[in-house]
Design goal:
The structure holds two protein chains of two kinds. By secondary structure, chain A is an alpha/beta fold. Chain A has five helices and five strands; from the N terminus they run E-H-E-E-H-E-H-H-E-H. The chains are: A alpha/beta, B alpha+beta.
Chain lengths: ~150, ~425
């Protein structure tokens, strides 16, 4: 699949909280504000999954949010990369034995979804930028050799 | 059908939000642009934490309790720890009390600065968002320096704390406090004197003193209405009893206690300064001694499993008073009962009078004004009940509306 040249400059990111504790969410915002300034690489938080190339999922997926997680995933245009931010999205972490948790997120998403795990509780902003970088490398590889 | 009913719209807002807040749903009833009713629907973020806590022993619950909220992680672990200490009659050491106070106030500083940035973003001043988040990194650095992590510090244990604040840390603490003292004037200039911000915040989202009392609001939300309510003074915990504190209400600083968004900003900014003072005093008066009264983990765990009792932990969180109730029984090693009441829960009911009569463009700002731990505006739908048509507002469009309003009211230059 060929991507447009805009990928060389900008990667748009949609953040979705599926019932997390806010810590990772705050660190995501910290990553785009001046100290870490991910926007200088063209990484930008957008308000709609339809605009996004990369999905950031935080949280262990609560029962009420399960359908919404899947809907947001479907609404994002291909090609897309899913970034699972934080330990609870990866393994449900400290919430493992709860009755209200449907996660971890990777068990809910389709099998062909490209998932990158960013671990930490909470994740550090540097680690988030690193995760988005990996997503970028994956998306650019899709363009093939004509770059 | 009456004429009034013809023009009423329902706007569900939530539960997905792109940037900051947790999943949450509010339904608004609108008459044209004017909000006539607001009803919150929580539960999107229900993780069953109390249930999980009741299947773990108290030691294991401490890391769980701080993951209730990533912004007030100290608050929740403090409450759980003090409630259990209360149940088992464990006394924390004096030095631990001071260290706890310092950590609580550092968290208040980062939470209030974070709030100021969010409020500026909702009004449409993203420069201020980036400015406030830049200065917030300084206190995050200090928290990381003391506790070893930017968020979720795991500092508390029964009977004290797990990490000491030693003398070589003092210079860095004082340097950070000085940084905020020097910056404070600039913050005040931005948020209290800027004419455009004043136009958007003054008289918007008013909570009267009567409503504040009747709806049992807590924290800066009701202090802005002139209600003198602060657990740190009413029922001192940790080292607050040794300090000379006063209620931060706007009338103390020459403002009227109107309860609008402007007053809430005043309260939060002044509390920032108050926190700096508290930390300074705590560091100066820090007593010598052990940091925990229960240094032996195995003995402590044994004691926790075999004793019974019930206790309450109260705290003045950055968002207001919050309470944990803990009961332990002799039969079970696990926590027998655990009940949490966080401050946002009380403050949600204050939304109704604050939204009443305001415009759609003011929704983001008023929703942010209570500093909700949950609160979500990604997707709003306006449903025309009569025609059955659905008109969607994304969070971005709502934000656009808010920014447009700022531009409109400052049209032709600001005096």
């Amino acid at each position: 699949m060929d991507l447009s040249k805009t990928f060389d400059k900008a990667l748009w990111v949609f953040h979705m909280n599926s019932g997390s504790c806010n810590a990772c969410d705050i660190e995501i915002v910290a990553a785009i504000t001046p100290r870490y300034d991910a926007e200088r690489f063209g990484i930008k938080l957008v308000g709609s999954p339809r605009h996004a190339d990369v999905l950031l999922f935080t949280g262990p997926v609560t029962t009420k949010m399960k359908d919404r997680v899947l809907r947001v995933y479907e609404q994002t245009p291909n090609p897309k990369v899913v970034l699972i931010i934080g330990n609870c999205g990866d393994t449900t972490g400290v919430f493992f034995d709860s009755y209200a948790i449907e996660g971890p997120i990777d068990t809910l998403l389709p099998e062909d979804a490209h998932i990158i795990y960013v671990n930490g509780c909470p994740v550090r902003p540097e680690n988030i930028i690193n995760g988005v970088k990996e997503a970028w490398i994956y998306l650019e590889k899709l363009r093939g050799d004509d770059k | 059908m009456s004429r009034e009913k013809d023009t009423t719209y329902e706007v569900p807002i939530g539960p997905i939000h792109p940037a900051l807040k947790e999943p949450f749903l509010i339904k608004f009833k609108l008459k044209g642009e004017e909000i006539v009713d607001a009803e919150p629907f929580p539960g999107m973020n229900h993780r069953g934490i109390e249930f999980m806590g009741m299947h773990r022993n108290p030691m294991e619950v401490i890391p769980l309790s701080e993951r209730i909220c990533g912004i007030c992680s100290i608050v929740h672990q403090h409450m759980f720890t003090t409630a259990t200490e209360h149940a088992l009659s464990i006394e924390p050491t004096n030095r631990a009390r001071y260290i706890r106070t310092i950590m609580c106030e550092l968290e208040r500083i980062h939470s209030h600065i974070l709030w100021a940035g969010v409020a500026a973003h909702e009004i449409g001043f993203d420069t201020h968002l980036h400015f406030t988040w830049k200065i917030r990194e300084k206190v995050m650095d200090l928290l990381e320096y003391i506790a070893g992590n930017r968020v979720n510090y795991s500092m508390w244990t029964f009977g004290g704390v797990r990490r000491d604040i030693t003398e070589e840390m003092y210079p860095k603490i004082f340097e950070t406090l000085e940084y905020y003292e020097n910056l404070y004037e600039k913050l005040e200039e931005i948020f209290l004197e800027d004419p455009s911000i004043k136009l958007r915040t003054r008289g918007v989202g008013v909570l009267t003193k009567k409503d504040a009392l009747e709806l049992c609001g807590v924290g800066p939300t009701v202090r802005a209405s002139g209600v003198k309510k602060d657990v740190r003074i009413d029922q001192p915990y940790a080292a607050y009893g040794d300090l000379d504190l006063d209620y931060v209400i706007p009338s103390r600083y020459g403002f009227e206690n109107k309860g609008d968004v402007f007053c809430k900003t005043v309260v939060r900014l002044k509390e920032l300064l108050q926190s700096v003072d508290i930390i300074k005093k705590c560091v100066e008066q820090m007593p010598e001694g052990e940091i925990t009264s229960e240094p032996k983990k195995a003995a402590l765990l044994n004691k926790l499993g075999k004793s019974a009792g019930e206790g309450i932990g109260r705290i003045e969180a950055p968002r207001g008073e919050a309470i944990h109730y803990v009961r332990l029984s002799e039969e079970r090693d696990d926590v027998d009962c655990w009940k949490i009441r966080a401050s946002t829960y009380n403050n949600l009911s204050t939304y109704a009078p604050m939204f009443m009569g305001e415009q759609i463009a003011d929704i983001p700002l008023i929703a942010a004004s209570i500093d909700p731990c949950i609160g979500c505006m990604d997707r709003a739908e306006i449903i025309d009940i009569n025609r059955g048509e659905v008109q969607s507002y994304t969070k971005e469009e709502l934000h656009e509306l808010s920014v447009k309003k700022t531009k409109q009211i400052t049209k032709g230059g600001v005096e």
